Structures are given as structure tokens and as C-alpha cells.
């Protein structure tokens, strides 16, 4: 499995091979894909440029010597197996490839969780209701605007629109968390320079303002960030305590869980939305609770 990212040539990208990657390359070479197309696909998925070219060249060299391409294990149903599939997650209406999985803390990257058309449709739905994104005041529970979060956002109720209903069902399938445990989908837009400085998504029960949130579904247990476009530069999701940065690629989604088996909260899930250098960034965020969520309480 790919477990870390490194910085090469000023860009951040994954630089570790894995059986999953080798089998993916072998399968696509057997299907007739050209080297340039495979390199481009790897770059869009967050791999380092030099590593991607070396990996593709090595895969073509092995194929040229007549080695039989490795056959990947068939994708298994997450619901049937009780855990996510090794190479893909069952999205209900389709299989969703898993590009990498980090075991501790629990972080995984889904490839093309949403189609390009679905991403564009979510952006279009949100444009008419964008407003400056607030955060919960940890002492009062009120929503305040702060300099650390500079995005514009739009909130949707659960199942508010047929498109959202379909996406929420797919999220529930790939994460194993029931749809009714999810907060409403939040669409966020960051302009150049826009960022969200390092923070936790879970609530601190010791802070009265945040403790109030626990009455409407319990603690947040996981977050899913879906990239609705690919910024020209910048805008990665960073996990500074594990040295991981996830490149924002349209349709991909990073999922991270912060509830440990003993009920403790994993502080290694501190994360940030890094500044957008050029262009803009659109994401959809889904927060998942330990119990069914009631937004009207």
C-alpha cells in the first residue's frame, strides 16, 4: 500500500509502489493503453511525475519480456465482507477504486467517487446559495466567521435533491456508515489564496459550545472530502501529523476516520486545506456521526 507522500521538484506526489498499482498497470497495458495515457492517469491521481514515468516504463518492460500480467483480486462487496474491498469499494451503483489506504490513522483515497457530470451538477446547484463559511464557536456553540477559514459554502439538507440522494447512497455504501448518520452535504469554494488552516472535524466534549453538537447525532466519527474540480495549483488536503498530502483531483474523494476502537479520538487526523495557488477549488464535504443525525434539534 502507498502510505506516504514525498516532495519532488516542488510538487507533492506519491512515490511508493504497491501490488495494487502493479496490477492496475499490467491490466491496462494488456488492454492496449499507451504509456503517456497511463502516466497522465497516475499524475491526476496524485503520483509524483518521475515516479509515474519510471513505474510505467518498468511495467512496459516487464510486459515486453512476456511476463503474464498479474490478475487483480475481484472487488468484493463491502457490505457482504464487513470491511471495504481490497482494490475497490462497492458503491452500490458501481465499483469505486481505492487508490491508497493508510491504516493508522485511517485514511483512504477513492478514485472517481463522482463522475465529472456529477461534480459539475453539484457546483451548479450550490452557486445560488454560497455564503462565507462559518465555524462553531467552541465556547458558545454559535457559528462565527474566522480568518482561518476563508471559503464560501452552501449547505444542503439530506436527500434534498435527487442527485444528492444518489451521492449520499454511494457514500454510505463505500464508507459503511448509514446515510441517516450523515450531516447535510456542504459545498465549498476557495478562491486563490483560500485555505482552511489545521483543525479537527470532531467535537471537543470539554468545550460547552461543541458539546451542544453532540445532542444531534453524537460525535462526528469520520469525514469525506470530495474534489469537484482540479485546481490549477495548490489546494491539497494535508495531514501534518502523518506527513501526508492528498492532491485535489476532480471526482476523487479522501475519507478519514477519527474514532479509535477504544472510543478515543485520533489527534493524528489534524488536517488542513492548503492555500489555492492558482485557479479555484470546489469540494463537497460530508461529516458522519456515530448515531442518526437530526439537524432540527
UniProtKB/TrEMBL annotation:
Gene: phy
Keyword Lipid biosynthesis tagged: no
Cofactor names: L-ascorbate
EC number: 1.14.11.2
Annotated Fe2OG dioxygenase domain residues: 181-290
The organism of origin for this protein: Cupriavidus necator (strain ATCC 17699 / DSM 428 / KCTC 22496 / NCIMB 10442 / H16 / Stanier 337) (Ralstonia eutropha)
Protein name: 2-oxoglutarate-dependent dioxygenase
Enzyme class label: oxidoreductase
GO molecular function: iron ion binding; L-ascorbic acid binding; procollagen-proline 4-dioxygenase activity
Annotated InterPro entries: Oxoglu/Fe-dep_dioxygenase_dom, P4HA-like, Pro_4_hyd_alph, Pro_4_hyd_alph_FE2OG_OXY
Keywords: Dioxygenase, Iron, Metal-binding, Oxidoreductase, Vitamin C
Amino acid at each position: 500500500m502507498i502510505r506516504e507522500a514525498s516532495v519532488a521538484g516542488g510538487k507533492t506526489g506519491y512515490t511508493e509502489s504497491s501490488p495494487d498499482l502493479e496490477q492496475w498497470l499490467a491490466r491496462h497495458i494488456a488492454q492496449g493503453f499507451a504509456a503517456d495515457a497511463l502516466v497522465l492517469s497516475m499524475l491526476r491521481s496524485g503520483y509524483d511525475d518521475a515516479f509515474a514515468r519510471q513505474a510505467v516504463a518498468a511495467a512496459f518492460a516487464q510486459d515486453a519480456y512476456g511476463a503474464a500480467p498479474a490478475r487483480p483480486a475481484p472487488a468484493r462487496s463491502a457490505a457482504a465482507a464487513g470491511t471495504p474491498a481490497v482494490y475497490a469499494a462497492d458503491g452500490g451503483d458501481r465499483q469505486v477504486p481505492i487508490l491508497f489506504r493508510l491504516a493508522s490513522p485511517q485514511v483512504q483515497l477513492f478514485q472517481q467517487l463522482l463522475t465529472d457530470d456529477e461534480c459539475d451538477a453539484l457546483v451548479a446547484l450550490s452557486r445560488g446559495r454560497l455564503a462565507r463559511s462559518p465555524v462553531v464557536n467552541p465556547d458558545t456553540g454559535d457559528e462565527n466567521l474566522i480568518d482561518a477559514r476563508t471559503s464560501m459554502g452552501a449547505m444542503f439538507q439530506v436527500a434534498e435533491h435527487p442527485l444528492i440522494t444518489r451521492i449520499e447512497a454511494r457514500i454510505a455504501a463505500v464508507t459503511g456508515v448509514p446515510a441517516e448518520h450523515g450531516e447535510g452535504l456542504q459545498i465549498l469554494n476557495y478562491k486563490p489564496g483560500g485555505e482552511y488552516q489545521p483543525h479537527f472535524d470532531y467535537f471537543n466534549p470539554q468545550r460547552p459550545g461543541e458539546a451542544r453538537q453532540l445532542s444531534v447525532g453524537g460525535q462526528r466519527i469520520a469525514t469525506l472530502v470530495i474534489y469537484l474540480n482540479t485546481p490549477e495549483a495548490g489546494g491539497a488536503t494535508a495531514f501534518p501529523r502523518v506527513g501526508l498530502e492528498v492532491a485535489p483531483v476532480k471526482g476523487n474523494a479522501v475519507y478519514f476516520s477519527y474514532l479509535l476502537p477504544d472510543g478515543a479520538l485520533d489527534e493524528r487526523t489534524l488536517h488542513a486545506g492548503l492555500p489555492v495557488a492558482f485557479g479555484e477549488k470546489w469540494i463537497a464535504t460530508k461529516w458522519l456521526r456515530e448515531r442518526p443525525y437530526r439537524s432540527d434539534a
